[in-house]
Design goal:
6 copies of one chain form a homohexamer.
Chain A: H1 14-27, H2 34-39, H3 43-58, H4 65-79, H5 82-94, H6 99-121
Chain lengths: ~130, ~130, ~130, ~130, ~130, ~130
């Protein structure tokens, strides 16, 4: 259950509605997912977050859009963010991620968490070569 | 400072030496980084971890090797593992990651951590569409 | 679903009942929330935790009680503790936190998580001035 | 040791210099701390992060500026971000936080981390009253 | 809700079936829990993970099997992994963990999380004696 | 570097000195490690934390003292608390933990972190049998 009301279209202020409209136009869909409806309780947080996400995720850069989604999923899995795992896995599948690729991503995330913890457990010193 | 002695070549048992040899052959370098020298205190842990890492990271699959390194870095950043950030960033640079790509990866990791926390903070319910 | 039985009033031992009575008296309410009923399975853990919480949260100090609740919420959001986010947000609202304040708290928590991760990602050295 | 070069004034591009100038003007000091010099390797990340931080932390809102710094510190402690703990504690002290207030903040952070973990350990269900 | 289909016996490939058979034989039960059915979407991940788990948890070593389960639970509580807390607590109870022992484990996990956070909050330097 | 001054014996208040004396008497050593000297900046936090630690770790219960230290280490490794890993590993070695036992503990911590992350990644639903 959410801690705040989800802002629906009818109760959205003009400031919120403008962001919702841009999300719809950018993503070419009428669907606004709950994340945006939740943070819309603070219109400035909504505007700032959407502007940042668009700049990072939807603007062509040096990384493939699907690679960026997979990095997003890896972070979400490591943070144990249920919502984020579901929403970004859906986004990655929509961008063409196969089930084999997803399971290979999961393998890397599991392995990385194991070896991260081994390094931390033994307080392994960083090799000079890596500095 | 490490919690255990790092195992050098001179003091390595035959079981450890066999893994070190395979790391050198697989990576085509004489360099064995401290992570392996630390977990070599448990030869079975060393053998198992290297076998798993080779299977996941060095075997051709459905993901590009550089993409897998970037996922590994994203997890290491999120787990705050100093050793792992250094070693896997070095590995990714060796595989051709540019500084622009690295900074874009960092942007995604930062943004993902922010929106993960916003989702968690507001306990946003997963949209039916994502299930 | 809880891992242990929640201790109801009827089955509470004298030691548990004494703590429940003090919670009720201190908070001026008959309501005992599930957290206390769960840890009551270890009466000493219950007594110790309640004594500590009362000392830290309910005793006048140098920080405003509402500020302390907001710090508690920030930790709970960062730890992804669903129960804690719900219970301490309820407590903060009862102490007068407005929805605008809550959303501003959420903004700070989100931003802090992003810049924390950027600092960690780039392994930024602490400035001499801060030491 | 940082993963990237820290951008000094001499090598800063015009885009980076403009942000550095605004940081100096806003904070009324010539000092630019390492965090900004590190993320300056991606001028857009620098510009975006500074704009967001200024909007959240330096713009009058419903929370006291010192309270916002203490929330920032609580998140940084929970995330184990050494740089962030040092820089934001310095900022809070500059805004008037006393040592008694700091130690009381630390007490709350410690207690919250304990009870968060107890709630998670026992999988305590959220009380209906809190929903 | 899972992100992938759980693999049931009817749809299991020969490679998956062989692992399921070994889990059944090793554990002397017909029951295969959902964790294995989920990772079975990647048969190699399934085989590798089961081989590692059997080597670590089911092979006699220097630690008592119940102690190893309790260490597993402590990690799972600290990572906030609901599934893992439930499955490993069930396993530990099956190996003879009493409710008093479980609550004492919970006390240690809570206390460790508090003092961990105090150490991190104050950036306590490691004593020379511990190095 | 610590965020606060470490309290040495000369500058300790009577309240702090009383706790230091009890630590020395309980542990049968003159050595007070830095953790206690750091939290001594808040004498009530010092007194409360020592009382809790003594009750949990030094009082005979249903778990072996060495097992409790190993649980403490597992939490500290998972939380990436450098100070805590060093101090509790030293304590466990003093209580008789062998290097083989330590490495086996590290193996379990690594494995648990991997399977925790796999469970979270795939959002595996808890089996009815475990509830």
């Amino acid at each position: 259950m959410p801690i705040v009301q989800l802002v629906d279209d009818a109760s959205a202020s003009d400031e919120v509605r403008a962001v919702f409209d841009d999300i719809r136009a950018t993503r070419k869909t009428d669907f606004i997912n709950n994340f945006w409806r939740a943070i819309a309780n603070d219109p400035k947080l909504l505007a700032r977050t959407w502007a940042d996400l668009k700049a990072i995720m939807a603007t062509p850069g040096t990384l493939d859009p699907l690679v960026k989604e997979m990095i997003y999923i890896a972070v979400s899995m490591t943070n144990n963010c249920e919502y984020c795992i579901h929403s970004h896995t859906a986004a990655a599948r929509a961008k063409g991620m196969s089930e084999e690729q997803f399971m290979e991503l999961v393998s890397v995330v599991g392995m990385a968490n194991e070896t991260n913890r081994l390094s931390i457990s033994l307080q392994v010193p960083v090799d000079d070569r890596f500095k």
